[in-house]
Amino acid sequence: MDRTISDRPLTRWAGSLILLLTPALSALGGAAAPTGGDKIWQKGKDTPIPGVITGESVEGIKLGATMSIPIISVANIDYFDAPDAYRRGHDRMEQGLYSDAIKLFEAALRNPTKAREFWLEPACRYYIALCYVEDGSDLPAAEAKFKELLEKHPDTRFLPDALLGLGRVQFNARRFDAAIAQFKKLGDLAAARNGWEEWLSASYLWQARCYLESDRYDEAQRAVKRVLDAVGDPKHDLAIQARTILAMVLLKEDKPDKAVDLLRELIKAIAPRVAEEVDRGGSDVRMQRTEAQCHNALGQAYVKLYGKTKKEEDLRSALLAYLWTVVLYSRSQFAGEHAEALYNAAQCFEKLKQKNRATELLNELTQKYPDSPFTRLLTPGKAAIPRKETEK
Asked: The whole model's pTM is what?
């Protein structure tokens, strides 16, 4: 069976790949502060809900005196009274500039007004902790910040995010049994609440990743099945990410050809939903992020296949998979996926004896994502284990 990806829709983008020879598109800047009330974007919705947020908790976001929106349905919130440092912190975080983002969130956290502190303090503490996790160079600080958040704001709307974050700290430190225990805490919280199937699925998903990385493949596959059962929809972004783990199991079992077939199947299956999400616009980019992750995984599978076949066409297919993410997902929302693709595409160019193009990509990586774990791989003695999966 021909497993090159020359027959995929990527060929339509061949002209766009010339962009590789120039710096990537600039990261999108942050939106200007709104002049009216708060705005809440819900998952899968085109327009935000306007209003004045009067309270937040793990139960939901309270608008006015009576209306409450469950947190499980919230994709993004734009606070009309957000300090400038908070907004700029978000911009830096989305661009992968975690050190700058931490400083800005810390600045926003100082002396908040009474009208702001109910949402600003937990939000800043959560995003500071998240930046430490994404950066990956100071995991003890990340763990301390998540614990501080939960101690000071035990009923925060970020409770499930913080439990997930604590598990990710253990995962990134390769303490997989501790990570599994933490993810199970998230699963217990989700199982006790109506409508929290996504968080339950996220718990199973990260447990599957732990089992995969600790070479417990049977348990990884059982955890993937639990994800699929919990989420229901086989084309949901978490279901696709779970099935990507099955492809990684195939790679671990030295079956890269089967992994390639599975990943190509997943990419084809979600293409219509990716197109719908792009057409809809807005802040919900989960399907696009999942597609970028699938293409990066496909590149990994082709590299492994090339290791077996030594066929240049397999290496070129790996390069094309990574270039899909390099070209189409250079926006700031996809900083993690884009950094990974830049690094790995450069490695492919090196193997293809195209050093100039490899250098261009690595220059873009170091300039655009100085805090990325993949950038640190270029500095001997400072490399951290890159995180190949993003948070839910």
From this structure: 0.82
Q: What angle do CA 347, 333, 10 make, to 5 degrees?
A: 55
The tens digit of pLDDT for each residue in 237-282 reads 999 999 999 999 999 999 999 999 999 999 999 999 999 989 887 7
- The domain spans of the chain are 33-76
Q: Is 172:387 a contact under the CB 8 Å cutoff?
A: yes
**Minimum mean pLDDT range among 19-23, 219-223, 230-234, 370-374:** 19-23
The 10s digit of each residue's pLDDT in 271-306 is 999 999 898 877 778 899 999 999 999 999 999 999
Q: Which H, E and C letters describe the chain, residue by residue?
A: CCCCCCCCHHHHHCHHHHHHHCCCCCCCCCCCCCCCCEEEEECCCCCCEEECEEEEECCEEEECCCEEECHHHEEEEECCCCCHHHHHHHHHHHCCCHHHHHHHHHHHHCCCCHHHHHHHHHHHHHHHHHHHHHHCCCHHHHHHHHHHHHHHCCCCCCHHHHHHHHHHHHHHCCCHHHHHHHHHHHHHHHHCCCCCHHHHHHHHHHHHHHHHHCCCHHHHHHHHHHHHHHHCCCCCHHHHHHHHHHHHHHHHCCCHHHHHHHHHHHHHHHHHHHHHHHHHCCCCCHHHHHHHHHHHHHHHHHHHHHHHHCCHHHHHHHHHHHHHHHHHCCCHHHHHHHHHHHHHHHHHHHHCCCHHHHHHHHHHHHHHCCCCHHHHCCCCCCCCCCCCCCCC
